[in-house]
Design goal:
single chain; alpha+beta; eight-stranded antiparallel beta sheet; 8 helices; globular
């Protein structure tokens, strides 16, 4: 198995969700599942961020002119539906489905047309950048797909190929050096470590660090908590020393 990884960058004013994420830089959206047939696409997405960002994301998904992943610049006359499946304090799970019109296209549909079936799709969106990861079942040619995608997105943004390599299971990639944290979380962590936020006793308090970074205290707190959660999950996933948590007596 192989994996193809690439990024799409959307220009302002075209993709309502990308516009929201560009305004709320602390928010992210990743696909929990994404499936496509010749004439339909449906997906379940997990949005993470503070409440104002989640509300804006929900509104963007419900925009009548918005169809997730459709790359057509004009009104493609597709039919779509979105529904909130779950909502937490900092998370939002959204189900979307849309039926193609004769002019609609998307990343999964182009992949089906130019690569074939048996594909797995994964995406993560931060700001105006959406990173796609497609798992291929064999030695399929990806050149025609990449050319078609570049042509489709030319009017709305850009594309950058990152890698085409042997597939590595997600669990094996969650090591300390390859967490792929969002840039704002990485910057927050670097600043917190450099300024002594994690030292005992602390050399700087959260509010002081937020002032130095010129961001609200709540925003910095959220970014650090999300980064710390990813670090903890990566540690547990990569540490074989314990089979399961045990209470100590």
């Amino acid at each position: 198995m192989r994996e193809l990884v690439f990024e799409l960058d959307y220009r302002p004013g075209w993709n309502p969700v990308a516009d929201v994420l560009a305004e709320h830089t602390e928010a992210t959206i990743r696909s929990l599942s994404c499936h496509a047939t010749e004439d339909r696409l449906w997906r379940v997405d997990l949005a993470s961020g503070p409440e104002p960002a989640l509300s804006a994301i929900e509104t963007a998904y419900g925009t009548a002119e918005y169809f997730p992943d459709c790359l057509v610049t004009g009104d493609c006359e597709a039919r779509s539906e979105s529904r909130v499946l779950d909502r937490g304090e900092e998370t939002l799970v959204i189900y979307c489905v849309w039926e193609r019109s004769p002019v609609c296209t998307s990343v999964p549909h182009l992949a089906l047309e130019h690569v074939g079936g048996g594909l797995l799709f994964e995406s993560r969106q931060e700001g105006r950048t959406q990173r796609w990861r497609i798992v291929l079942s064999g030695e399929e040619r990806v050149g025609p797909f990449a050319d078609a995608l570049r042509a489709e997105i030319a009017d709305v943004g850009g594309m950058e190929l990152l890698r085409l390599a042997e597939h590595t299971p997600t669990g094996d990639r969650r090591t300390g050096g390859d967490l792929d944290l969002p840039a704002d979380q990485r910057r927050a962590l670097h600043a917190a470590v450099e300024r002594g936020y994690y030292e005992i006793p602390r050399r700087i308090e959260l509010g002081e660090l937020a002032d130095e970074l010129s961001i609200p205290r709540s925003t910095l707190s959220y970014r650090l908590r999300r980064a710390e959660a990813r670090l903890a999950e990566a540690f547990v996933a990569s540490d074989p020393s314990l089979d399961s948590p045990r209470a100590t007596r």
